[in-house]
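Q: I'm writing up a methods section and want to include an example of the input and output format. Could you take the sequence below and give the corresponding predicted structure tokens, formatted cleanly so I can copy it straight into the document?
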Amino acid sequence: MADKETVDFKTAAARFGLCISKAKNVEDITDLTSVFQATPGSVLFHPFSEQEKKLIVDQVFRDLVKEDVLTAKNMERCKFLISLVTKSAIEGHCSPNLVFILLSDVFDCITLEQCDPLFTFVEERVSIWTMPLFFSAGKNLLLRMCNDLLRRLSTSQNTIFCGRIQLFLARLFPLSEKSGLNLMSHFNYENVTIFTQRPATDQKDKNSSTVSEMEVDDRVAKELTSSKDEPRYFAKFLTNEKLLDLQLSDSNFRRTILVQILIIYQYLVGNVKFKSTNQVLNESQSAWVKEMTSQVYELLKETPPDGDKFAKAVEHILEREENWISWKNEGCPSFIKERIESDPKPTPTSRKRKASIGDEVASGWRSKKVVMGRVFLPSLEEYFSEAIEQADPEAMVEDEYKVIKNSNYGWRALRLLARRSHHFFQPSTNPFKTLPDYLDSVVQQLAQELPNLKNEESIVVNGELVNCIVQYNILLFCCFF
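A: Here is the clean output for your methods example:
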């Protein structure tokens, strides 16, 4: 152990810093990889040598980013270093949460004008932040960074920037993320609307008819005008009581107020889990809310333009809101169902398949239809006897009534000729004939030859038949019958 090379922090940091400074692009970390693998662990912290080297690389990156932000004011170089940190974290050379720590530090050190392009850089890499390596290690850091930015921004002057941050968080975190849910259904008590009330008396003070002149200090006036106003919430309708009648006569303001009334009514009669017992309506109150809801919908239908269409759209949206209320009451379960990993079923041993050859023969033997010595293929004389008689001119049988005109008879005749007669094979030079004409010519030839043919079909069986002949005859028997 004494001969093993130890890690000096400054030496290792200098090595890593030199490799990082030489990098020309994000993918150029081969030198850093080589030095990281070649640098041995400390003797004292030998079991944690890899983690110790990662801490050194983390500190080197932080020093370089600090120099670029505070000293050089080079934001492009800062973006390049953050991209290099991302690549190094994927390769295992630094901590996965380092990139989020650096981003938080940089946002804290720069102005709001510089935050806009840097946040664009963060938005473009949302697919990287959602990787399991970075998301599990830095989701809380990202959320804290975005919340710090929102606190610095003005909701009235930086509306677009605030919206971009909200959209980024919506893309980054799933819908069931607990940090973005109001699980207890708390109200936003910070949203305070200031109403202008009418004065108790409208009489002017008679003694204030003459106003005395006073000296104005320019310095005090300048301080008062330059002081920052408190942020105020502006509703869609004005809050002055004198303007209420004028607002209700305007269709846009009237729609806004009626829709807000419907939202309040839905909350009052809805089944909200976190309502207290004294916030539940009785039967008479629920009936009154139901009646007023119907009247509000009627007023929306009568409000131009497209009042009927607008009322149906609002009703549909509020019906969909019931699903979200049920989801909140159930504790906001995740929409993604995890796959249940079941134990793999044992592969059943395959049985040897029974050969299907000879099934018809076996069934024939079992049903006792096969008789030893029986010939299932008819002879030429037996099958064509009727056709030969009809072919005789003395029989005077019309062509349309001859058996050779029957297609079923013709098909069986062809199969029989293929097995019993050489007349089935015709020379290729003969012209093509229809099936009845072909059978007519064959019948005429058979009429001349049959008296001289031997009875080839009579088979004398001495107790047994050859299996192949039996199988062939049975197959022909199935075709004929």
